[in-house]
Amino acid sequence: MHRMSTPPSPRSLEPDDDPRPTLLIADDVAAIRRLLQHELGEEFRIVGEASDGAQAAARAADLRPDVVLLDLNMPGHDGVTAIGSIREACPDTTIVVLTGLESSRVRDEVLSLGAHAFLEKSAPMPELRRQLTEMLGRRPGEGSPQA
What is the pTM of this model? Predict the structure, then answer.
């Protein structure tokens, strides 16, 4: 008996076959990590999460994601401290700071440390998604850029 099979959904593809950019989410609030996974999971392949800066740096070094979405205000090893560690371990990873802090001084500091962008948590999710995909040279809905 021959069974018809359906093609796999994008979320069930093997990682090597998945055209979406990889994303590591670092935020100390579990509910925010879940929200970001839910909202960004169509455009990005979420490869991991971290709840503090030390964990973010270690996971980034292990996973080598295309993007690290990094909160600044976390207990212990914060996001500011993590930027240098991530940049050193993963020079090709795009670091995007996503924070509730709205300060030009903080923005200038994190950009000088090697972050690629400083985005506010108050931004609507479609705007966050658009900014992230544009940073990677794509429009929302497209796969990874062609080499």
Answer: 0.79
